User: Fold Cytochrome c oxidase subunit 3 from Stratiformator vulcanicus.
Amino acid sequence: MFFVAGLIGYLIARFALLKGQHPVSVPLLFWFSTVVLLMGGTSMQVALSSIRRERQLKFRRCLTFATLCGICFCILQVFGMSRLLDSHWATLDGERTPLTGLLFVLILLHGLHFVTGLAIQLYVNWRALRGRYDHEYFMGVRLCTYYWRFLDVVWLAMFGAILLTT
Assistant:
């Protein structure tokens, strides 16, 4: 709920404060990171389906690929978000406004949320490589898949808001 409120606040502040000013450019890295995130989410879904059918090799490969996609997404986001913040600062001539504060809070919240999920994903992946999951016990994989899909929706909403304001 805090994220949605922050996103709405960002949109309002962006349209109210920057009327007539040059738009902020969207870093190309965001497009790449979106593709990587969606590939990882799809891979997680295949991993979940595979473990339900007791296809261990396919499960481990898909889960590991999803984890690598998560790491890649995180790296791309760090560079993309820093470019977005730089772009906002340049548009505002270094002036501090509620817009930059809201954007910083959204980026921080997004980052903390993702890094926490990635840490859990790494733990689930570590357990999977040790053979801890099978067709009867795969709750950790199921929860990671749900979390990944939730992250897909959150990022797509955030990315959509950024695109709307450029």
